[in-house]
Amino acid sequence: MPITSLSPMPSIEDRIAAHPDRSLLLLDDDQALRTRLGRALESRGFEVTVAASVAEAHEALRNKLPAFAVLDMRLDDGNGLKIVEAIRERRGDARIVMLTGYGAIATAVAAVKAGAVDYLSKPADADDVVKALLATGDAPEPPENPMSADRVRWEHIQRVYELCDHNVSETARRLGMHRRTLQRILAKRAPR
After folding, report:
1. What is the pLDDT of residues 21-78, one digit of tens each?
2. DSSP per-residue string spanning the chain
3. Is residue 11 in some structural domain?
4. The whole model's pTM is what?
5. Domain region containing 77
6. Which of 79, 85, 101, 137 could form a disulfide with 122 if both were Cys (CB 3.0 to 4.6 A apart)?
7. Do 60 and 126 reside in the same domain of the chain?
């Protein structure tokens, strides 16, 4: 029986280099994350343009439509979904990943409906972002470090609290818990 050698999987850098257009728009209002993630994506072979606001992102899109985009969901001057729509209108093949500090099923569904290929919670690891951008199957690979059940619960509580305009009594009513219990949860740090 002949021995056949399996060709090794190409590295992430090789897969990025194989793309004819490696332009990437990184939109995030958190300067530390934007700088760190921008450098990590550049080191992997992307040509990164950074923006700190929806207005800066629209300006960047006037100069060049990127093949890839990593966009924050919530920004001081708007919502990253507007940028997803702006890219999708003019470049249907762009690969877009949404980032958010508020992991919620409703916002994930909205991001995917708008045209994002994946949705990651912050702080997102650069490797997870690249895997999501380069995923070729219908379902991207699961993250290396998924959120714990406690973190998912905490994120949900934070989201409802935000939707209730930081009204503790209304949030407690909607979540079906005692107001003091909610206050104790809100006073604690986020679980890992």
Report:
1. 889 999 988 888 888 999 999 998 899 999 999 999 999 999 988 999 998 888 888 8
2. ----PPPPPPPHHHHHHTSS--EEEEE-S-HHHHHHHHHHHHHTT-EEEEESSHHHHHHHHHH---SEEEEESEETTEETHHHHHHHHHH-TT-EEEEEESS--HHHHHHHHHHT-SEEEESSPPHHHHHHHHH--SSSPPPPSSPPPHHHHHHHHHHHHHHHTTT-HHHHHHHHTS-HHHHHHHHHSPPP-
3. no
4. 0.66
5. 18-134
6. 101
7. yes
